[in-house]
Amino acid sequence: MNYSNGLVNARGKQPLLSFGVISDVQYADIPDGRSFLGIPRYYRHSLLVLQRAVEKWNEQKLKFVINFGDIVDGFCPKDQSLTATKKVMDEFNLFDGPVYHMIGNHCLYNLPRENLLPLLNIHSSNNLAYYDFSPIPEYRFIILDGYDISAIGWPKDHPNTLKALHFLEERNPNSDKNSPNGLVGLERRFLMFNGAVGKEQLEWLDRVLQDATKLNQKVVLCCHLPLDPNASSTEALLWNYDEVMDVVHRYNCVKVCLSGHAHKGGYSIDSYGVHHRVLEAALECPPSTNAFGYIDLFHDSLLLSVTSYGVNFSSLQQTLIVTASLEPGQVLKAGEDQITLTWSLNTTFAAGIDLPTKL
Ligand SMILES: Nc1ccn([C@@H]2O[C@H](COP(=O)(O)O)[C@@H](O)[C@H]2O)c(=O)n1
Ligand SMILES: O=P(O)(O)OC[C@H](O)CO
């Protein structure tokens, strides 16, 4: 198969396919602000990051794009939720190919599922937002709905809202269920801005992984909420990340889990050798810097090139490269294959790095 834009990757191999990634745009037409923890948030600039991303992805002729959720921020005035969501979608729609979306908590603060899902081109009879696709026979992509069991997004009397409230009541004694005060270690994920994958979705995941195994496909698992404590702040984890990973670990086909939500990003390899990469938030890029990228898929590895914080878009001085070898067997320690490189001014996208240890 040819590399989509006709270029050979600087490692000398032609990728089977390349696709774009971005997360947590959280656009709102409001002045800059800060997160609860004081991190600056640039609500208007994030749309410019998306515009630059789409421009770059089109230049690179990528096959498709995956958006990891939270396209509009919860602080968006509610009478502007619909127009803001459409405005962001208009930008995504300028990409010359399909864009696969997933939902995040901020999307759900703005619009109920029944209005949101059609805008995100997620066609579902039960308002759940999980699905899979296989752009080439060698790979299967699975998009999870991390807010299946959630106290946000469903009507107040929906069984999933009630289940979520009950779940939180049992695990988080604070009156503000977004507060992790007093919760210890992994308990700190039991917050209202997170959610869980429900039983039926878990069973569906199991069936898809069974099928992928039968077809000898490698799987990229995507979820707004991170699935490994070593790749994310504890407060951002999916409530039942452990149940999801128990299903994943029954098979050998899932090679990498990608997510957003934990804005500073992260990377780990779990004890089964599955790679986890949390993507940095577009929202928290200071003006004229970026957080988006693309992934090259190979038979035995993938290569993520991220245009990261502090990088001037036109010079692309720094590119964060992660090569993740996908063969089963030996497990690398987290961080061992994550390398930050500084490139000279006239270098554009750069080479991958061969792993010191081949899996
Ligand atoms: N450590 C934290 C983090 C958050 N909260 C609460 O969650 C709300 C949303 O947080 P953002 O990161 O999206 O700004 C925030 O307003 C707090 O109520 C918290 O209590 N402790
Ligand atoms: O996506 P937000 O704004 O709800 O923030 C989530 C936090 O970063 C989780 O620690």
Automatic annotation (TrEMBL):
Cofactor(s) essential for the protein: Mg(2+)
CDD domains per UniProt: MPP_Nbla03831
E.C. no: 3.6.1.13, 3.6.1.16, 3.6.1.53
Record's catalysed reaction(s): ADP-D-ribose + H2O = D-ribose 5-phosphate + AMP + 2 H(+); CDP-choline + H2O = phosphocholine + CMP + 2 H(+); CDP-glycerol + H2O = sn-glycerol 3-phosphate + CMP + 2 H(+)
InterPro entries assigned: Calcineurin-like_PHP (IPR004843), Metallo-depent_PP-like (IPR029052), MPP_ADPRM (IPR041869), Transptr_NO3_Nar2 (IPR016605)
Highest taxon above the source species: Eukaryota
Keywords, comma-separated and alphabetical: Hydrolase, Metal-binding, Zinc
Record domain Calcineurin-like phosphoesterase: where: 18-264
SUBUNIT field: Monomer.
Family from the record: Belongs to the ADPRibase-Mn family.
This protein's name: Manganese-dependent ADP-ribose/CDP-alcohol diphosphatase
